Amino acid sequence: MQTIFVLNGPNLNLLGTREPEIYGSDTLNDIARMLDDQAKELGVAIDMRQTNHEGVLVDWLHEAREVGAKAVLLNAGAYTHTSIALLDAIKAIGVPVIEVHLSDPSQREEFRHISYVGMGAVDEVKGLGPRSYSVALAKAAAL
Ligand code: CA2
User: Fold this and answer.
1) Active-site residue 62, yes or no?
2) 12 lines ligand 1 (CB under 6 A)
């Protein structure tokens, strides 16, 4: 069975505990359970992780290549807007990456309008809350 990595960056471990008006009230575990059910229906496996460390995200992107992952869903949190290291990794691995966001960064502060992740990603899904992950998973399974 093919595996899709679902990688989450800084502060997303706090989901469901603060700022529900922006990010909703689901926790990351709630989203993981929802994606697991959807993955079974789609006939794929997901490997979902979260870290607060930029280099760990880079390592996990490399791992996606090493294990032959079908695709990566990446919500890099604020590193989306700052990390050329993530862009370089996305370009290097040859595994399609779909950028995912709960909110729509383009409708928020100016500093969230640039996306280095988006410069390497094959697609993006944003602004749908947890459903952003579901839509992205369906897209990844169809690649
Ligand atoms: O909308 C998204 O998914 C973001 O990637 C979330 C990031 C933000 O920096 C991006 O611009 C857009 C922030 C994640 C912080 O998550 C929290 C969740 C609950 C409480 C506090 C932070």
Assistant:
1) no
2) yes
Q: Note if 113 is an active site residue.
A: no
Type of residue numbered 118: G
- Provide the residue type at 129 as one letter: G
Q: Which atom of ligand 1 is nearest to the CA of 127?
A: 1
| 3-state per-residue secondary structure call for the chain | CCEEEEEECCCHHHCCCCCHHHHCCCCHHHHHHHHHHHHHHHCCEEEEEECCCHHHHHHHHHHHHHCCCCEEEEECHHHHHCCHHHHHHHHHHCCCEEEEECCCHHHCCHHHCCCCHHHCCCEEEECCCCHHHHHHHHHHHCC
- Cβ of residue 23 lying under 6 Å from some atom of ligand 1: yes
Residue 63, judged by CB atoms within 10 A of its CB (0-12, 13-18, 19+), counts as middle
Q: What six digits make up the tokens of 125?
A: 């899904």
CA nearest ligand 1 atom 18, residue: 15
pLDDT tens per residue across span 4-20: 999 999 999 999 988 77
- pTM across the whole model: 0.97
- Residue 112 alpha carbon to ligand 1 centre in Å: 10
